[in-house]
Specification:
The chain is mostly helical. It is about 65% helix and about 5% strand. It has a two-stranded antiparallel ribbon with strand order 1-2. The mean pLDDT is about 85.
Length: about 160
């Protein structure tokens, strides 16, 4: 065991030599990554889950783009309604994606709640004079709701 000294007077950290790989021998080909079973789990995802995860990444990207405005607003007012809404949406989105990736039963209801954000966006876009984006968001809403209400999604999200 080697002991390396840090900059602190009476503190030290212990370092250990690297352990040899138990299956490293002639003719052994290591896996391309640590847990090759993960790719099978990703392939087993129903299309509704994959579409939802893409939608959640779009929501997270939108939150990331709006953070500049929220931070600029927080300089003049430390507590603001847009800041609270963005932070709650960020927490809700991350929590929902985490539950979906863990295949929890509660994730389906939370995912439907997150997908419901598309519903008020359609009339808002129509009233803003943007019919093409409104049609695109409406199509996304239909795809999300149909995908998340299928039996394959319910069967996939089966862990308590």
């Amino acid at each position: 065991m080697l002991v390396a000294r840090t900059g602190f007077a009476n503190r030290s950290i212990e370092t250990y030599p690297p352990l040899p790989c138990p299956s490293s021998g002639p003719g052994h080909h290591p896996a391309p990554w640590q847990n090759p079973g993960v790719i099978e789990r990703i392939r087993a995802m129903p299309p509704g889950i994959v579409i939802f995860l893409g939608y959640a990444m779009l929501v997270l990207g939108g939150i990331g783009l709006s953070l500049r405005f929220v931070i600029d607003l927080s300089i003049s007012a430390p507590l603001s309604l847009p800041g609270v809404v963005v932070m709650v949406l960020l927490a809700y989105t991350i929590f929902t994606v985490t539950l979906v990736l863990q295949r929890k039963e509660a994730a389906r209801t939370l995912a439907l709640g997150l997908a419901s954000l598309t519903v008020p966006a359609v009339p808002l876009l129509l009233l803003s004079g943007l019919p093409l984006p409104a049609v695109a968001v409406a199509a996304l809403a239909v795809i999300l709701f149909v995908g998340l209400t299928r039996g394959s999604v319910r069967a996939y999200l089966n862990e308590a």
